Amino acid sequence: DQQVKQNSPSLSVQEGRISILNCDYTNSMFDYFLWYKKYPAEGPTFLISISSIKDKNEDGRFTVFLNKSAKHLSLHIVPSQPGDSAVYFCAASGGGAQKLVFGQGTRLTINP
Amino acid sequence: ETGVTQTPRHLVMGMTNKKSLKCEQHLGHNAMYWYKQSAKKPLELMFVYNFKEQTENNSVPSRFSPECPNSSHLFLHLHTLQPEDSALYLCASSQGSAGANVLTFGAGSRLTVL
User: Fold this and answer.
1) Which of residues 44-73 of A touch B (CB under 8 A)?
2) What is the mean pLDDT of chain A?
3) How far apart are CA B103 and CA A35, in angstroms?
4) Which chain B residue is nearest to residue A49, measuring alpha carbons?
5) Which residues on chain B are in Cβ contact (under 8 Å) with A102?
6) Which strands make up the sheet holding B18-25, listed edge to edge?
7) How far apart are CA A16 and CA A3, in angstroms?
8) CA-based Rg of chain B, rounded to a whole angstrom?
9) With 0-12 CB in 10 A as exposed, 13-18 as middle and 19+ as buried, what is B33?
10) Spatial separation of the C-alpha atoms in residues A61 and A86, rounded to whole Å
11) Which residues of A touch B45 (CB under 8 A)?
12) How would you classify the pairing of strands B53-57 and B109-113?
């Protein structure tokens, strides 16, 4: 049973426009959600996180929105830049567990 | 060296070989992790160590044997692997404190089992 799901394997967006990456979860015990970005031949790097007591967290061009009632979160990147082309992973933790549970990832391609 | 360093970056081994993956973190973190990334699958947690003690084993087959001699080093010993074990093995570390448990990952070791 996959507790964190990213249903879109890929997304293509034009440079300068907004990229929206989505993530759904099933475990209501999760209390932190994180987004990671991964380039080929590199490990995932942390982008932004949000606590379950908030509904929005912003850091520069990156904003994460959390809808607890829908068990859904999204990452908005605006404006999108060519360097944003990567695989993005959604992850969650909580319920007293230390580990991060990851989604399958979404490959984002920013077209010039 | 900074961050989390993994060696080797690439490894090809036969099913009867014994090899080891090494991970070293230079961040002063207390927790270390092994994750496995197979094609088109989520990252799967394998093991968690806190202050050198194993605190989680995610039902990993015994052909994978972790070792954590201190809080900065983590090994994954491999023996009699199967072709389906071919994957990217990622090491990570974290402070292990309350709040968002931000993991810092290494670049991974790409394993191919023939």
Assistant:
1) 44-46, 49, 51
2) 94
3) 11
4) B100
5) 35, 42-43
6) B4-7, B18-25, B73-79, B64-70
7) 33
8) 13
9) buried
10) 15
11) 99-101
12) unpaired
Tokens of B51: 């202050």
Q: Which of B6, B74, B102 to mutate to test the interface with A (most CBs of A within 10 A)?
A: B102
Q: Which positions in chain B touch A44 (Cβ < 8 Å)?
A: 43, 90, 105
How far the first Cα of chain B sits from its last, in Å, is: 32
Assess whether pLDDT exceeds 80 at residue A8.
Answer: yes
Over its length of 114 residues, how does chain B's per-residue pLDDT go in tens digits?
679 999 999 999 988 889 999 999 999 999 999 999 998 788 999 999 988 899 888 899 999 999 999 999 999 999 999 999 999 999 999 987 667 789 999 999 999 999
Q: Is A35 on the interface with B (CB under 8 A)?
A: no
Alpha-carbon span A71 to B25, nearest angstrom: 34
DSSP state of A17: S
Residues of B in contact with A100 (CB under 8 A): 45, 101, 103
Helix (H, G, I), strand (E, B) or coil at B75: strand
Percent of chain A with pLDDT over 70: 97
